[in-house]
Amino acid sequence: MPKKYLKEFYWKDYLNITLGLALYAIGLVGFIKPQGIVTGGSTGVGLVVEYATAIPFQYTYLAINCVLFVIALKVLGLKFMIKTIYGVLMLTLLITLAEKIIVEAVIENEPLLSGLIGGIICGVGVGLVLSVNGSTGGTDTIIAIIGKYRNITFGRGVLFCDFVIISSSYFVFHDYQKIVAGLIVLGVMSYAMDLVINGSKQSVQYLIISDKYDTIADAINKELHRGCTLLEGMGWYTKKPTKIILVLAKRTESIEMFRLIRSIDEKAFISQSTVRGVYGEGFDKIR
């Protein structure tokens, strides 16, 4: 596709990234950092350094990512790094601003509650960033570099790095409870992040095999207002041709779908599977 057709989406991407980074900065500075909780990623390393030396964590975060940029530019190329560079510089700025505005903890004397709320806000923020292929750098960049040469899944690599970073807080606080709190916050962040990225894409795909395919397809069209596609198939056991109905619908429509099919043909064979995303009329917009 010519680049001129893609330019209209670029500013929306950076708007999403900036909003997500602002939320991340608020959650980190206002809720997580005041409680002495360590998160994952290069911000987590920065927090450990600040707790130990009082050096502002955003400076450590920026320094780590500057080193990673030099390595990543040679390995991954500039095109991969543009949004990451923007994300790191903008997050450093937003954290600095947040520390000037939020001068004390939003929630006092409730470390776990404060951490959980901060984890939700940070997770939503990172989810917005990742939803447009943005990045906050740090472990994302490290795993991308390693993945260039080794067969390692992104999720497993990030989880391992984050676990090591959070566990390292023991050398500063000598308190296992801080590690547990950090892992809980990490879990909440991951869940919130997943909801933002995939929560709106909870769609399902049905493959329906029935002799009454025409009646079922008409009923799905008229009663559930969903489109159907007929596929040609053949039962290998019977060696007879058959029609297969392909339907994409929202997860919330599953019960109605099954009841409708059952009311027409109790012997219908139905396969239901979750799909990551469905784009087009009646579903998500192509972004």
Describe the structure.
- This protein has 287 residues and is of the alpha+beta class.
- The protein has 2 domains: 3-199, no CATH class; 202-275, Alpha-Beta Plaits (2-Layer Sandwich), CATH 3.30.70.
- The chain is built from 11 helices and 4 strands, in the order αααααααααβαββαβ.
- A 4-stranded antiparallel sheet has the order 2-3-1-4, with helices on one face.
- It is elongated and about 75 Å long.
- The model is unreliable at 1-6 (pLDDT under 50).
Largest sheet, described in full?
A: 4 strands, antiparallel
Number of distinct helices: 11
Write down the overall geometry: elongated
Instruction: Estimate percent helicity.
Output: 55-70%
In spatial order, strands of the major sheet run 2-3-1-4
Number of domains: 2
The class by helix and strand makeup works out as: alpha+beta
Q: In terms of per-residue confidence, which ranges show pLDDT below 50 for 5 or more consecutive residues? A: 1-6
Distance between termini? 14 Å
The tally of beta strands, per DSSP, is: 4
Tell me the strand percentage band: 5-15%
| Mean pLDDT rating | 83
| Spatial extent as radius of gyration | 24 Å
How are helices and strands ordered from N to C?
A: HHHHHHHHHEHEEHE
